[in-house]
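Holo prediction. Input below; ligand is iron/sulfur cluster.
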Amino acid sequence: MNNESFNLEKRKLKREIEKHNAERVLLQLPEGLKPYATELANIIQEAGALPIILGDPCYGACDLALEEAQSLNADLIVHYGHSPWFKSTRIPTVYFAAYSKKSVKKAVMKALTFLEEYSHIGLVTTLQHVNKLEEARELLLKNGKIVIIGDTGVQPHRGQVIGCEYSNAKSIADHVEAFLILSGGKFHAIGVAIATGKPVIVADPYTKNAFSVENEVKRVLRQRWACIHEAKKAKSFGVIVGLKIGQKKIEKAQKIVEELQNAGKEAYLLALREIVPERLMQFPDVEAFVNTACPRVSLDTSSKFNKPVLIPRELEVMLEKTSWEKLCKSGWFENDA
Ligand code: SF4
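Structure of the complex:
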């Protein structure tokens, strides 16, 4: 497999296997990097360990395969594509960012057209393009922009955002008129827009294009508003506890069950690994759900579910503990609090 798109740090991988004296290695990759799995498994084998490729989907470092590694007797996890989520883990874990090798120049130059009316620009990025942040900053500066990059220390890199954590964007939102994000696709850009309320332009290094996510953000907000109103009518709620290790918030879910019961609703804890319509459809008498696991399942895929799947902050609006306006202002993401 040609790996020209990403720096897979193969030499470092071999060194890490040797350094850890690993005998059995669980290799975990997000979907976009799975095509490189066999190539990386060969390196692990050459370094003297047995590689096991995890075929299950992985959407974030919140889903670190600790339980799988334990059940397979792996003595090392190699995790590609995400920053560490946990400070320490019971099975040693080595992370590889898989930085993109794609140039950001063309995409950033195209983004300037969308940024014409703004002078103060917040610059953010996903992990894969952290290594191109400085190049993007210089291009913006050369074109007369004032560039601000947030650094709250929550993520390992300044300006970095992940799907459910935008503190590097939120911390500078009051000082910028718009954001430019280096990322593939719209997912993180939509997150920045709903976390900050600012216009967001994507510079996509993979397609070398730039675009606004304004319409998508309006659609997401319309759908969320409708879901909150629909959920108000529900008498029976399922409160979802995520089974992925970084998404398991049982105490929070229990508190929500109590809040709903105090508000005169029926509420049940529901533990799930994958929150998909087929799973929720198995409970016809549950009329709405509250999702304490990955907030992006609710925000990005709500049209796939035939019942409202609120995130905890939206439930506060439904229970009139806060207002829609305050929710829009403070952002949707618990991790940003
Ligand atoms: S909780 Fe969701 S958005 Fe956050 S890291 Fe995990 S998969 Fe990504």
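The mean pLDDT is 95. That is the main takeaway for now.
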